[in-house]
Amino acid sequence: MAKTANINIRIDPETKAWAEQLFASFGITITDAINIFLRQSLMVGGLPFEMKQPRFNAVTETAMQEARDIASGKVSAKSYASARELFEDLDSEC
Questions:
Q1: What is the CA radius of gyration of the chain?
Q2: What is the DSSP letter of 73?
Q3: What pLDDT score does 94 carry?
Q4: Is 46 left (phi over 0), alpha (psi -120 to 50) or beta?
Q5: 3-state helix vs strand vs coil in the chain, percent to 5
Q6: 76 Cβ contact list (under 8 Å, min separation 6)
Q7: 28 burial level (CB within 10 Å; 0-12, 13-18, 19+)
Q8: How far, in Å, CA of 41 to CA of 52, rounded?
């Protein structure tokens, strides 16, 4: 096996878990993904993506914050046992 070097990084547990799920869906580990990132950075001579601040309108920002609050458990969201139950509830609102 080739010699390797260790890199220690700190990241919040939620981000790590989401990244593990994402990369697992591609059949790779976080270590594999970091190696891909570093090699691609070397190939292009910098970051392998454009760095910019996303610009969202106020409605989108509000929806994104609501989704974050639901995901973190700060806000409870209505849930349904089935799609049929969801559609019946939607139909009753009309």
A1: 20
A2: T
A3: 75
A4: left
A5: 55, 0, 45
A6: 70
A7: middle
A8: 17
